[in-house]
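Figure 6 in text form: structure in, sequence out.
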């Protein structure tokens, strides 16, 4: 049974707690798996099994997780700088990228690193990403004023189609410049940022008691089936489970 806490921000979802069963699936995000107590069990698309403490599963890789272990799971957008750096780490193992052996090998540095398990789950994932994908993390900067304004305006547009040109006009900057700011300062392409913002809006709406249909429409999805499909594609989990089976930590989307 899934029981724990979740923090969601554009580009990343972090879960900490009891890991439930996740039958064979694949998703669009890169997944980090960290066992904080007993070993976690994974199986890849070929049927190869593994038990261990850390793994990096690239997007599109078929896998299965057996519940029972306590740990931290993180889903990182595959199109962002961090996701690309994590995927590159899996490829550099020289093993088939769809194999559990490659996923475990990619995470090997974590076994030689002292992680602050007492920290928040998001803090632990920050440590992990700094260890595994330092080149993928955008340098700490004070966000460009136009980007900060765009991030503030974007939520008011989520119930409809969000176009980069329209958002750029609202903050007085060219669309090409704003697109570069999303990638350079947030490490996430504009389209990916919007997708994660929609997921956050929908899950927040459902968590507060709205139906999945209401949540989907509030976030700009066509219907509840569309929302459910995107959640499964990104995380391998249903939006209803994300909304109600866990406790949510609210985080600011960005700072600067």
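Output sequence:
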């Amino acid at each position: 049974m899934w029981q724990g806490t979740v923090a969601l921000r554009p580009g990343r979802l972090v879960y900490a707690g009891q890991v439930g069963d996740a039958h064979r699936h694949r998703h669009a995000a890169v997944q980090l798996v960290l066992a904080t107590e007993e070993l976690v069990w994974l199986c890849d698309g070929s049927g190869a099994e593994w038990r261990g403490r850390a793994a990096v599963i690239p997007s599109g890789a078929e896998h299965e997780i057996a519940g029972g272990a306590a740990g931290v799971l993180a889903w990182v957008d595959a199109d962002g700088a961090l996701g690309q750096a994590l995927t590159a780490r899996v490829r550099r193992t020289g093993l088939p990228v769809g194999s559990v052996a490659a996923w475990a090998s990619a995470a090997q540095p974590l076994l030689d690193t002292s992680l602050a398990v007492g920290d928040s789950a998001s803090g632990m994932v920050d440590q992990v990403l700094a260890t595994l994908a330092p080149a993928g993390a955008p340098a700490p900067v004070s966000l460009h004023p136009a980007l900060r304004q765009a991030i503030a305006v974007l939520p008011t547009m989520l119930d409809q189609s969000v176009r980069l040109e329209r958002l750029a006009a609202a903050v007085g900057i060219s669309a090409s410049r704003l697109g570069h700011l999303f990638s350079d300062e947030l490490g996430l392409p504009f389209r990916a940022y919007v997708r994660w913002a929609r997921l956050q809006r929908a899950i927040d709406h459902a968590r507060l008691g709205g139906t999945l249909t209401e949540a989907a429409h509030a976030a700009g999805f066509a219907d509840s089936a569309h929302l459910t499909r995107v959640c499964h594609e990104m995380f391998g989990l249903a939006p209803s489970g994300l909304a109600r089976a866990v406790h949510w930590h609210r985080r600011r989307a960005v700072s600067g």
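Caption detail: Residues 145-249 form a domain with the Arc Repressor Mutant, subunit A fold (CATH 1.10.10.60).
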